[in-house]
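User: What would this chain look like folded?
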Amino acid sequence: MKASDLRAYSLHELHQLLHQKRQELMELRYKNAQSPLSNAASSIPALRKTIARILTVINEKIHERAKHK
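Assistant: Here's the prediction, encoded as structure tokens.
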């Protein structure tokens, strides 16, 4: 998911998406700890980057909102 796509979401939707992606990451790490997954080497870092992008867009929106007040 690209940052430009994420900017179309509202702040509330971004928080929900962040919660969902963090839950996915937790489940993926748990499954990988139980029995190593073949795709974990690529999917865990990709999911972490997606979470970082979401957090970046959330911070941009918060700072933009504060700047206009």
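Residues 3-67 form a domain with the Helix Hairpins fold (CATH 1.10.287). If you want, I can go into more detail on any region.
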